[in-house]
Amino acid sequence: MCGIVGYVGQREVVPLLMDGLRRMEYRGYDSAGVVAVQDGEFQTVKAEGKLDRLKEKLEKHPLTGHYGLGHTRWATHGAPSERNAHPVVDSRRRLALIHNGIIENFLPLKKRLIAEGWTFSSDTDTEVVANLVSSYLDGDLKAAVARAVAELEGMYAFAVVSTETDGQEIVAARQGPPLVIGLAQEEQFLASDPAALLAYTKDVIFLENGDIARLTPAGVEAWDRKGQRVERAVQHLNWDPIQAEKGGYKHFMLKEIHEQPQAVQDTFAGRVDFERAEILFDTVKVTKEELARVERLHLLACGTSWHSALVGKFLIEDIARVPVEVDYGSEYRYRDPIVSDRVLAVGISQSGETADTVSAMEAARERGARLFAVCNVLGSQATRISEGVIYTNAGPEIGVASTKAFTTQLVALYLLALYLRQVRQGHLERHYLDDLSRLPQAVDDVVRRQEQHMDELARRYHKSQNFLYLGRGINYPIALEGALKLKEISYIHAEGYPAGEMKHGPIALIDENLPVVAIATGDHVAEKVKGNMQEVKARDGVVIALTDHDPEELGGIADEVIEVPSLSPHLQPIVNVVPLQLLAYFIGVRRGADVDQPRNLAKSVTVE
Ligand code: AGP
Questions:
Q1: Which of 348, 605, 607, when mutated, tests ligand 1's pocket best, judged by the most ligand atoms within 8 Å of its CB?
Q2: For labelling, which of 22, 224, 359, 503 has a CA lying 20 to 30 Å from the CA of 423?
Q3: Is 45 within 8 Å of 14 (Cβ atoms)?
Q4: 8: nearest Cα among 178, 184, 173, 221
Q5: Catalytic residue at 603?
Q6: What is the C-alpha separation between 244 and 284, in angstroms, rounded?
Q7: Alpha-helical regions (H) of 165-259
């Protein structure tokens, strides 16, 4: 998954491109490059590695111009290198192109182009697109792009500038990965992510799959996959540019952990009538009668969002008494699932662009399922293909490790469970809402009380080579999430496990070098988890207990105790995960890891 940015207008283009790339660096950072067009000529500067390398090169080789393109890469075809960095220039040097996605039929196209005399200087599929567009270029860039995309198979969001157009012009095409256009007076912007545009405009257009767009200073024209002119709706983003900055925190991840009380509040605000004990879903186009007939839910997601789905299963089955299946997006789409119009499929995705999740959603819909999305990004692909969207209102999540997106997904799934109960039985018991109003304060309390304590635990345990996280019931997915946070941020091997399963294998790992985080909150399972803690202590393991009980009750079996406030069992996981996010963060910082941009990872995996 890469980051794309473009600009046409009166300002110097390179500073704008670099600013936009900086705000999207989390999308991929193997290499980066820019192209500026001046007096009918274009110049490109590219660099391997992070954006700072490109910045250093531009200081030595400054570019000028009033329109151009920028790109930050997460390698798919061709190793991370300057040679494979974008923008890519066609072999007749008539255009420069940047691309996010994978062209699945690039090899046969490359073979044909070579036979026609085109040459290649990189290993990328992108260079095939550049030469293909150039092979059709005859004064009309948009027409050349239209002819080229008719031959492409796969996923792409690309933009191109040419020296053969009259005046400033960017042409862009989208099939899969996102492309958003920012509109302003006498200048237009293009990016993969709205966060890159927020500082300049909040009025945006989200291109649809199959769209081609032409940007000039005067405005934007768009055509659909049939070549018909279309007017895509202009949306006004309510994100504040400052939100997309670090706001004084050392890392986006820490800022976003601290934003959780507000994000949780914003996710249920306006959707709960506390007076009448009613859930209000205004973005659901499926009628209540249709929802009442739903016999099963399929929750589809990847990574942290898959952990949300596992919690969602507990919530929906316990509250709405509807059976729920949970599946990885990458598994669901290839297992020929049993689906009917009595199945409600729900794709859970922060970005709304995760290829495995979106494809699984499409697989469910093709088989007759009704389709919802739980998503954080307005206008993203997952929201476009769904009949109902429950937006998590977490604001932009820049840190690669998902934190506020996860806790707000749990709130959204709680609301969905309540809504299904309400629709199916005609009313909702008030007690389900009592703890919801307390939730933001409870999350705020645990962030404030545990931040310093988690840094202290990080000081003691950051040199450990392995961690084990244990949880039962609705907290088993929290054990998985705590382990994922640690491994993706600090590169320590960590495993989440059902506490009751420890004796069936992982207990062999226990020794004095293995910290075991045990989640022992609530009542009927906490006693069982205490028993698991004793099994660990009996083998000299290190026990870090997370509990809402009086630490005295642990009877000294825990080496460390993380205290959290008590909420209803349904909402307790939202509070329980926060110290585990902080623990992962501080361990990562103490190990000198790049917390916001961990190695090999990208914020949204828009390729399979
Ligand atoms: C979580 O910390 C990871 N960044 C990753 O597992 C992520 O949750 C996964 O790629 C799914 O992304 P999505 O929520 O945008 O679909």
A1: 605
A2: 359
A3: no
A4: 184
A5: yes
A6: 28
A7: 252-258
With tokens 């819909």, the residue in question is 365
Cβ 331 vs Cβ 357: under 8 Å: no
Q: What is the DSSP letter of 190?
A: E
CA distances, 516 to each of 136, 401, 534, 541 (Å): 61, 22, 11, 7
Q: What is the 8-class DSSP label of residue 137? A: -
Question: What number of other Cβ atoms are within 10 A of residue 104's Cβ?
Answer: 13
Nearest to 194 by CA among 50, 306, 329, 352: 352
Residue 242 confidence (pLDDT) above 70: no
Cα 190 to Cα 153, 155, 329: the distances in Å are 23, 18, 29
Residues in the chain: 608
pLDDT tens, position by position, 327-336: 999 999 899 9
CA of 350 to the centre of ligand 1 (A): 7
Q: Whose CA is closest to atom 6 on ligand 1?
A: 303
What's the mean pLDDT in 144-163?
Answer: 94
46 vs 114: CA distance, rounded Å: 25
Q: Residue 535, exposed/middle/buried by CB under 10 A (0-12, 13-18, 19+)? A: middle
Positions of E strands within 170-306:
170-175, 180-184, 187-191, 203-206, 212-216, 219-223, 229-230, 234-236, 272-273, 278-279, 296-301
Q: How confident is the model at residue 244 (pLDDT cuts 50, 70, 90)?
A: low
* Listed residue (201, 240, 238) closest to 220, CA to CA: 201
pLDDT digits (tens, 9 = 90+) for 439-450: 999 999 999 999
